[in-house]
Specification:
Helix content: 25-40%
Number of strands: 22
CATH architecture of the largest domain: Alpha-Beta Barrel
Shape: globular
CATH superfamily of the largest domain: Glycosidases
Strand content: 15-25%
CATH topology of the largest domain: TIM Barrel
Number of helices: 15
Radius of gyration: 25 Å
CATH class of the largest domain: Alpha Beta
């Protein structure tokens, strides 16, 4: 491995715009570093949205970052590992850390064995044949680790031998062709070392883009072949429905005009043994210029403390007011029509919450309706109180808002007692209450919902483990829980499979992937040959 000269002393803490991948040649990619060793910032580790950060030994022992990103550890100019956050900074190297677009750049371009150099605030990654075989050996060793506790290794022997033969061939030739073959053989070995359960839900969230029934059938066939047995299609979103005649005040989304994709999904679900669970947005109704409900139901819109109908923290997001009971009635009428006209026995509620409500001076909702109701209860206008000066009143304001969301969930449950009702939620109840006024622990406790889907979207396997452990302790014996994983982040197959294996340690947890649209051919191959290779029945 050639050595890479890195002069760390020239680094300065200069903020730069994240640069899209700039190919130097077919085996190299570069990006602009946002900051090096940031000392201050409102985010953990100083890593902000879409930023790519370099942490050197001068920064300290660990990066201090949160779960919303990914990190690569580089030693002596070579990537040693990729994944997790809050990484230990090596004395002979550095850590490259990214969030958002930057995290996707890292996932795409940095794998173990990649050679990394830095010059003039540009990070350059080069993938050589030796890089590929370094990576292949890492994959091979992981496969060996997976089978070490299994009673019989006979099933895996031919895949192990195939890798060893190709690896030996590369040592003699040094060719890129043999390096590629070595990496492929290592993956073929790895995939098959993961256990495959025969009783679990393997779900995907899906934003349907099919133009007609032919395209939709091809998609369902592909799902079935990948091992998927449940699909949660985005059915009501951005103030529209995918199906016609949803409600006099709810239009069909223009891209589905002329046909009924939901009717086709139900037919294909039965044909391919895939459960169809409509995924619907509740309070979030979309963005200006896209959602018809923003203009047609303007009087129902939520208002921030800053006087806006849209969120500052979730840019451009418009929400319905959570205390407006006409909103409850509207959605109940929509769901009544849905269950009346379609053979559907399940519903998945998303955005069943307030907009992000931290910090408090940007929170919701301060419309005339909310302020009047709270003032009637307490004698105080919520716009005149804050958590620092009025802690007791603020607790009442928090409780008022939490109760608003609880109310609609309770109403939907009471109106449709036989429907399997579920909700998409954030992984931690306490944080959900603070940030979103979403009390999903009580929804489970009160049996308002039968199932819950947490969104554990991270490349950090240890975080998925922590979320799974937390969730497993929250659900009752008669309830079903799903851990949502995020291949949309560009997760390498080995990270996705590790996360699935973590979830499978719990008998009462299932897997949902966000999203079907984001699964690459390599993801699908990993699932088919790995944890989804055995046909599975869903848990009832």
């Amino acid at each position: 491995m050639k050595s890479v000269l890195i002069i760390l002393a020239v680094f300065t803490c200069i903020t730069a715009t994240f640069a899209q991948n700039n190919l130097l040649n077919k085996n190299s990619a570069s990006t602009t570093i946002t900051k090096t060793d940031p000392q201050k910032g409102k985010f953990p580790g100083g890593r902000g949205s879409n930023e790519i950060i370099v942490y050197t030994p001068a920064y300290g022992e660990k990066t201090g970052t949160n779960m919303w990103g990914i990190e690569a550890i580089i030693e002596n100019g070579v990537v040693i590992s990729v994944g997790d956050n809050n990484s230990t900074i090596p004395s002979s190297g550095f850590v490259v850390s990214g969030n958002g677009d930057a995290a996707r750049w890292i996932t795409k371009n940095l794998t173990p064995g990649i050679e990394v150099s830095i010059s003039d605030n540009q990070l350059v990654a080069t993938n050589t044949p030796r890089s590929k075989t370094f990576y292949a050996e890492k994959i091979f060793n992981k496969a060996k680790e997976n089978i070490s506790d299994q009673k019989s290794n006979k099933h895996f022997k031919r895949y192990e031998n195939s890798y060893l033969q190709i690896s030996s061939k590369f040592k003699a030739s040094g060719s890129e062709e043999d390096a590629d073959a070595s990496l492929k053989a290592a993956y073929e070995f790895l995939y098959r070392t993961y256990p495959s359960r025969t009783k679990e839900w393997r779900a995907v969230w899906w934003n349907p883009t099919c133009k007609d029934a032919v395209e939709m059938e091809a998609t369902f066939k592909d799902m079935a072949e990948t091992g998927i047995n449940m699909v949660c299609p985005q059915t009501i979103f951005s103030g529209t429905a995918i199906y016609p005649n949803a409600h006099p005040n709810l239009e069909q989304n223009p891209r589905f005009k002329g046909w009924d994709p939901l009717k086709e999904m139900i037919r294909l679900g039965k044909k391919y043994h895939i459960e169809v669970v409509p995924w619907v947005w509740v309070y979030y109704i979309g963005r200006k210029g896209v959602s018809p409900l923003i203009d047609s139901k303007k009087e129902w819109l939520s208002v921030s403390r800053t006087g806006k109908n849209y969120s500052d923290m979730e840019k451009g997001y418009h929400f319905f007011c959570q205390s407006e009971e006409k909103v409850d009635q509207f959605w109940i009428e929509v769901y009544e029509n849905l269950f009346k006209n379609y053979d559907i026995n399940a519903l998945q509620l998303d955005y069943i919450r307030y907009p992000v409500s931290t910090p408090w001076d940007h929170d919701f909702c301060y419309c005339d309706r909310c302020t009047a109701k709270f003032k009637k209860q307490t004698g105080k206008d919520p716009k005149t109180i804050n958590p620092n000066d009025h802690p007791d009143l603020w607790k009442q304001w928090e409780a008022f808002r939490i109760a608003n969301v609880d109310r609609i969930v309770s109403k939907i449950r009471n109106r449709f007692p036989k429907i399997t009702l579920s909700a998409d939620v954030f992984p931690d109840v306490e944080q959900s209450l603070i940030n979103k006024k979403q009390n999903w622990g009580e929804w489970l406790h009160n049996d308002y919902i039968n199932e819950v889907y947490i969104m554990s979207y991270t490349a950090d396997v240890s975080q998925v483990k922590a979320h799974s452990d937390y969730l497993a302790g929250k659900i009752g014996k008669h309830q079903i829980a799903h851990v949502g994983l995020g291949p949309y982040l560009g997760l390498k197959p080995e990270i996705l499979l590790e996360e699935i294996e973590v979830v499978q340690q719990y008998d009462n947890l299932n897997i949902t992937l966000f999203s079907w649209n984001s699964l690459s051919p390599q993801h699908k191959e990993a699932l088919k040959k790995g944890p989804f290779r055995s046909k599975a029945k869903g848990i009832k």
